[in-house]
Amino acid sequence: MHPVVAIDGPSGAGKGTVARAVAHELGWPYVDTGAMYRAVAWRARDAGLSLEARDEERVAAVALNAAIEVGGERVAIDGHDVTGAIRTPEIDDAAARVARLPRVRAALVARQRQYAAVGPVVMEGRDIGTVVFPGAAVKVYLDASPAARAARRSTDPAHGLSRAGAIDVVADALAARDHLDRTRRASPLRRAPDATVLDTTGLQIESVVARVLEIVRACLGRG
Ligand code: DC
Fold this sequence. Notes:
Elements: E1 4-8, H1 15-26, E2 30-32, H2 33-46, H3 56-65, E3 68-69, E4 76-77, E5 80-81, H4 89-98, H5 102-118, E6 121-125, H6 128-132, E7 138-143, H7 146-154, H8 167-183, E8 196-199, H9 205-220
The structure holds 2'-deoxycytidine-5'-monophosphate.
2'-deoxycytidine-5'-monophosphate is lined by residues 11, 33-34, 37-38, 95-96, 99, 125-127, 177, 181.
């Protein structure tokens, strides 16, 4: 297995921006595993599947067989460009639901592991350091106060500026998704015991990126 930088944490902690910048600095590919769950949720809804346990087998077949492209600027599934379509409140909810299904998780985890068979990778998600790559060379857990996370999410252009300003609404939705993510039976969001925790509340993204790069260099024994 090639070296993996695993970046986990709740939504709005800055994972996406930080992981992307760290990958850029290292010259490694970046994989947004949340986008994989989102794309599967989008495709399952598009196919009229239920996101509850009764259609688990069929949603898992999507997770296993669909052509999923993440990592670049765009996200696509089976040839549909879903870059914008997966960042809506409906897909926020749908993705959290499919992420509860153990067979869907098993299919996506297997696909995520394949990236490190090809080369080094920076991977971002909820269970990268705990389940996908428990032996990752570097594990970082990013967190932030609920208010800071809601503020970030409500001004995130990727999530639609239409929601900017409605911080209360975003904060409530984040709290509900956190609850789903932390209480699910299959791989709940939790910090790996050997992860370095960084609280990004009030920090500029650049300083978080610099800190993560220091950790990466220390762990990989470079410069
Ligand atoms: O990071 P995000 O908001 O794009 O993630 C979308 C959903 O997928 C969210 O409910 C958490 C879930 N997820 C997960 O369960 N495991 C991952 N590795 C990544 C995301």
